[in-house]
Amino acid sequence: MALRIREAEPRDAEAVARIHVRSWQAAYRGQLSDAYLDGLSVEERLGQHRAALESPGPHRTWVAEEGGRVVGFAVTGPSQDADADERTGELYAIYLDPDRFGAGIGKRLLDHALADLRERGFRTATLWVLETNERARRFYEREGWRADGLSTRERVDGEMRPTVRYRILL
Predict the structure, then answer these.
(1) Domain total in the chain
(2) What CATH number is attached to the domain comprising 135?
(3) pTM (predicted TM-score)
(4) What is the domain extent for residue 14?
(5) CA neighbor of 92 nearest in space, from 138, 56, 65, 41
(6) Which partner from 88, 89, 108, 131 sits 20 to 30 angstroms from 116, CA to CA?
C-alpha cells in the first residue's frame, strides 16, 4: 500500500489523538504503569491535538497515510530547550499506530520531519526520549542521532521519569 506523508489538518485531530494513545499504550507497556496506560483516552488527547492543528504557530504536524488512513504522525518546530539557539529545531513527537510498527513508516516519517527542519533553516535537531525506551533509542541511534549528555526528569504517570536528549546535525 502506498504511503503518503502530508501536513496534518484539523480534520486529522481524532486520528492523531487515537494514534497517540494507542502508541503510548503499546510502546510504554512495562515502562509506565498499566493503570496509567489503560486510563489514557482519545477524548482527553483530542482537545490538545485539535488546538495544535487549528493554531499551529511554528509547529508543524505531519501525518503518514496508507490507503487514506492516518497511521502515524510527527511534530516539528524550533527547539524549546533553554540552551538552544535559533538554528536548533526539535522533533517533539513521532508516533505510529502499533499495527504498523516495524513496517518502515517511522523511518519515512522521521526523514520527512528532518527534511522539514532543514528546509526551515535549522542546522541541528534535538529530541527527548524516556531513558527506559530502548526500542526508540535504538531506532534514533540507527538513524544517526546521538545522546548529547543532557538529561532531565519529566512527570509521567505521576512520577518523575528520566529522559535523555538526542541530537543530530542536519
Answers:
(1) 1
(2) 3.40.630.30
(3) 0.93
(4) 3-169
(5) 56
(6) 131
Q: What does the alpha-carbon distance between residue 157 and residue 170 come to, in Å, rounded to a whole number?
A: 33
In terms of DSSP H, where are the helices of the chain?
A: 13-27, 34-39, 42-54, 105-119, 134-142
Cα distance between residue 121 and residue 106, in whole Å? 23
Continuous segment of H or E residues that includes residue 103: none
| 70 C-beta neighbours (distance < 10 Å), count | 19
Residues pairing with 53 in the sheet: none
Residue 138's alpha-carbon distances to 131, 141, 143, 166, in angstroms, are 11, 5, 9, 11
Whole-number CA gyration radius for the chain: 15
pLDDT digits (tens, 9 = 90+) for 22-45: 999 999 999 999 999 999 999 999
Contacts 24+ apart (CB under 8 A), 56-61: 59/92, 60/7, 60/116, 61/7, 61/8, 61/12, 61/16
